[in-house]
Amino acid sequence: MSQSKLITMDEFTIQETRKFPQATGDLSAILRDIGLAGKIINKQVRKAGLVDILGKHGATNVQGEEQMKLDIFANETLINILKNCTECAGIASEENDNHLSYEDTFSANSKYVVLFDPLDGSSNIDVNAPIGTIFAIYRRVSELGKPCTEADFLQPGNKLMAAGYVIYGSSTMMVYATRLGVNGFTLEPSIGEFCLSHPNMKCPENGKIYSLNQGNSVKFDDGMLNYLTYCMESNKEEGRPYSQRYIGSMVADMHRTLIKGGIFIYPADKSSPKGKLRLQYECNPMAFLIEAAGGKAVCGTSNILDIIPTELHQRTPIFIGSKNMVNKVMEFVKVKEVVG
Ligand code: AHM
Ligand code: MG
User: Which domain holds residue 287?
Assistant: First the structure.
């Protein structure tokens, strides 16, 4: 990135906002604050390998403060930063049973709510594999001037205003989608700014990688098993057998899927009939983003974004990625209804 061409995420979002004369810039303020939280979380993630030297999580550090677990640290960082953001009325998080409505006069008049998984894939911390923060931003449906309500957080994905993730990988990136498209920003550590590095990201229509926890296949139904056979079958013209890649960190698996194409799957199985991943702060934001990039995301027969949520922490099976690969898997797998 040549310095003269650097566009910071802040500059970019403001430029995008100006394309709409009626836009107030409130959404850019939230994206900026999520970016700020991402930078603070990133700093802590980068130190994670040092905890054995500097003191284990849960132990007391040299200043006499207790070391916080990284996922709790990430959660508190997001909650506190968004509380200070005058545009955010409240949040819901994977780490909290219920939504949190910010009880101050500014927040009561704020138009947006944010849902997040503060540190997804946290079981990967120990092995230095990528992890991430996933976020989803809705315009609230409850009355302005009053605290936000659960209904604000139970909107379907097709009502999202923006969504994305921060990936703490070999570099740190923030990728977010609005209805205008998907853009990726790489953290330039020397200036502490996310800078536009991946403009107008598109998920290739076809791919050659399937990504799932194949160790669970003893619990899969026939549709899924037949699809796996299809992926592993030889067909030169169609580029099969496909490669299998699975990091076990949704953000990392989705980042690869977005850039290289492919399909990421977390299906329902005999022990998890509703799948594992959470609709509101894992699947919907990723589905919104991948659709904005030209890809597709379904729970079986219907689009993820059309599911009407009934619970904050509800799960859904997910098939997401390159459009043609998702269409193909739908020929094999049928999941009619996913509720709760
Ligand atoms: P988490 O929110 O507890 O970290 O769980 C979500 C993670 C995803 O990042 C990943 O896709 C999946 O769980 C991996 O699950 P599994 O270990 O069952 O393959
Ligand atoms: Mg998670």
Answer: 209-332
